[in-house]
Amino acid sequence: MTVDDDPLQIWRPYLQQLPAHHDPSSVNLADLENHLLNGVPRVLTRRNEIHVRLTDVYDDHRATKLHRDLESLQGFFTTESAIPDGLNIRILSIYSSASILPLKITPLFMALLLERYAVHPSFIQVLLSFGRNVHISEAGNSLLCVDERENDACES
Fold this sequence. Notes:
Layout: H1 12-21, H2 29-43, E1 52-57, E2 62-67, H3 70-79, E3 89-94, H4 107-116, H5 123-128, H6 136-139
Antiparallel strand pairs: 1-2, 1-3
Helix pairs in contact: 1-4
């Protein structure tokens, strides 16, 4: 079975782990699946373009790495710890040359990122704000999504 046969396939691991990290009563899975299948692919690149900057902030230093190809980002997802020891903040910045253009990350890598960091489903609304003309209400922080966990291990 390929992604063309089952487009939800790449998003399924993220959807399956949601109840373990977020209150299931606050997530409309049917609506979320619709966004992942129909809205999100519109705002992500259809080419193998990658431009993702990873910035880690520790007590005594800051490290940053730019991933500009599939192999580099794949290596990050498969070999590096999701949350290294001593890490205070991890920032993943996904580039777009303009907010009305697609983000430079493929749907597969976005699905991996959402799953790996257990990103709150409300972030999908922020993601969907890309790829269309900006409205005044969207230009502020009204689409900000912050999710603080009980153990303070991660915010998204």
